[in-house]
Amino acid sequence: MTHVEIRHAMDPVSARQLDTAGLREAFHMGDLFRSGEIRLVYTHYDRMIVGGAVPAGEPLVLDEVKPTGTASILDRREMGVVNVGATGTVSAGGESWEMGRGDVLYLPMGAGPVTFAGEGRFYILSAPAHTAHPARLVKLEDAKKVKLGSPETANERTINQFIHPEVMQSCQLVVGYTQFHGGSVWNTMPAHVHDRRMEAYLYFDLAEEARVFHFMGEPSETRHLVMKNEEAVVSPPWSIHCGCGTGSYTFVWAMAGDNVDYRDVEMVAMEDLR
Ligand SMILES: O=C(O)C(=O)C[C@H](O)C(=O)CO
Ligand SMILES: [Zn+2]
């Protein structure tokens, strides 16, 4: 079963008016991982699709997704899959990849229906594409690593870049995940924005009672959303996207938009945050 929800894009002036429930309705994406289901959110932010597939032993096939207007999801799109569960298999275009926890798979435009099987919990990201680059399974050891932050500012972390120009080619998807070093809990601080690309975060590896306070909004109008394990949030291009956990966690970041230049961001000075 494939469940699809539409998320319209919002401008920054309207977003300033929202209360907590309104903010969650517009930007928070919970309940993506249900046993035996594929659950997708089709966003109008660069038409990025964000979702989860949990086969729980029974294979699940992702094929037609009505809002794309094509017979099969990958007819005019590319896809990134991150396994945040136990080992499973993803198959498409006559090939199969065994995915361990933390592995990332890139599937190109034209790969056909995608089958998810085994014990994986598959986080799905898909954006429109214009050409087919080779499919590739990327393991953590093959990801490009960027170390940022320090223990003194509780933001010491490694950014693992998987679907990224320095590792492999894609059309517009850029995907990776960030891991923290002991005791650090702040992600993406100092904060930044990038009007050319939207971004989505999936928080995972959180303990049951732990939460991440995710900050969003224009730098001068910040708001927060309280995030549980395996919940995602969409960041409009005009918004900061950073967070602080009450415990340790990992998060998948993914972008789509006008370029694939990870470093093309505008840093926000601390004195400009409100
Ligand atoms: O911890 C970080 O900093 C990040 O992971 C930042 C994201 O990757 C990002 O926002 C990329 O634009
Ligand atoms: Zn960013």
UniProtKB/TrEMBL annotation:
<feature type="binding site">
    <location>
        <position position="241"/>
    </location>
    <ligand>
        <name>Zn(2+)</name>
    </ligand>
</feature>
<comment type="function">
    <text>Catalyzes the isomerization of 5-dehydro-4-deoxy-D-glucuronate to 3-deoxy-D-glycero-2,5-hexodiulosonate.</text>
</comment>
<feature type="binding site">
    <location>
        <position position="192"/>
    </location>
    <ligand>
        <name>Zn(2+)</name>
    </ligand>
</feature>
<comment type="similarity">
    <text>Belongs to the KduI family.</text>
</comment>
<feature type="binding site">
    <location>
        <position position="194"/>
    </location>
    <ligand>
        <name>Zn(2+)</name>
    </ligand>
</feature>
<dbReference type="InterPro" id="IPR007045">
    <property type="entry name" value="KduI"/>
</dbReference>
<protein>
    <recommendedName>
        <fullName>4-deoxy-L-threo-5-hexosulose-uronate ketol-isomerase</fullName>
        <ecNumber>5.3.1.17</ecNumber>
    </recommendedName>
</protein>
<dbReference type="InterPro" id="IPR021120">
    <property type="entry name" value="KduI/IolB_isomerase"/>
</dbReference>
<keyword id="KW-0862">Zinc</keyword>
<keyword id="KW-0479">Metal-binding</keyword>
<keyword id="KW-0413">Isomerase</keyword>
<feature type="binding site">
    <location>
        <position position="199"/>
    </location>
    <ligand>
        <name>Zn(2+)</name>
    </ligand>
</feature>
<comment type="pathway">
    <text>Glycan metabolism; pectin degradation; 2-dehydro-3-deoxy-D-gluconate from pectin: step 4/5.</text>
</comment>
<dbReference type="InterPro" id="IPR014710">
    <property type="entry name" value="RmlC-like_jellyroll"/>
</dbReference>
<dbReference type="InterPro" id="IPR027449">
    <property type="entry name" value="KduI_N"/>
</dbReference>
<dbReference type="Pfam" id="PF04962">
    <property type="entry name" value="KduI"/>
</dbReference>
<dbReference type="InterPro" id="IPR011051">
    <property type="entry name" value="RmlC_Cupin_sf"/>
</dbReference>
